[in-house]
Amino acid sequence: MRVLRAALAASLVAALAACGSSKPEASPLGMAVGSVAKATIGRVTARRAPAQAAPAPVTRADLEKFGVPILRAVIPVRSADALLTITDAKGGTLTWSTTDGTTFTQRDGVLIQTRGLGPDLMSAQAPSAAALRTDGGTHQRVYYFLGENDGTTRRSYDCTVTAAGTEEIEIFARAHKVEKFTETCARPQGSITNTFWFEGPVIRKSKQLASGGLGFIDFERVID
After folding, report:
1. Is the CB of residue 3 less than 8 Å from the CB of residue 73?
2. CB–CB of 191/156 below 8 Å?
3. Distance CA 19, CA 216 (A)
4. Residue 141 CA to chain centroid, in angstroms?
5. Please, what's the largest Cα pairwise distance for the chain?
6. Rounded CA gap, 161 and 121, in Å?
7. According to DSSP H, which parts of the chain are helical?
8. What is the CATH number of the domain that holds 164?
């Protein structure tokens, strides 16, 4: 499994902001992001090296000490497992990034855009988080995917939300009591199901469609 790195873009922003100073100082946030990336990559490299003892996995304590929010994204079709940090925030809309510039934009935990993945989700008309935890609620979803020749494909779905009970899940060695909701979306050509695990009003975990080429992405909010 290829583990992507926690975002380094914040470090770049900090460096650019420091331009013009003869002795720029590193942003604490930038240093933290870089440290998370180094820790993650180092352990992956060691695990792949032959004839060496398996290293300890990255732990919650490793991540908490950096003091920044961290999101995990797993893309099964790419065998990718990424730790992401925030590089842009506008109200409840957060852009999470990896070191290679791949980004995932969520509005209150609902995926609305990706960049750098190839068959990207260019944008989406998506329901609010509150709508996704309303049993029996209905709404329309519209996805705009990047298609062949850089064209955009539009897909519209009629969706229904169903409450699926309470569960206890574990994310990086921490238990969370959550409410599970499924969002079943249909159109004449087929259907999809997105799944959300809410801890109060927060989407703690989710499985959301990214695009036809990428399939679904699993997200876990590791550090708030």
Report:
1. no
2. no
3. 40
4. 19
5. 62
6. 22
7. 9-17, 28-48, 60-64
8. 2.40.360.10
**How remote is the C-alpha of 172 from its chain's centroid?**
15
148: helix, strand or coil:
helix
**Tens-digit pLDDT profile for residues 91-140:** 899 999 987 789 999 999 999 999 999 899 999 999 999 999 999 999 99
- Give the span between the Cα atoms of 1 and 24, in whole angstroms: 37
Quote the domain boundaries for residue 141.
2-223
Rounded Cα–Cα distance for residues 39 and 62 (Å): 8
Can you tell me whether residue 195 is helix, strand or coil?
Answer: strand
Please write the tens of the pLDDT for every residue from 41-73: 444 444 444 555 555 678 899 889 889 999 999
- How is residue 84 written in tokens? 């992401």
Angle, alpha carbons 16-29-115 (nearest 5°): 70
Short-list 119, 127, 126, 185, CA closest to 152: 119
**C-alpha span between 155 and 143 (Å, rounded):** 5
Assess contact for 94 and 108: CB atoms under 8 A.
no
Q: How many structural domains compose the chain?
A: 1
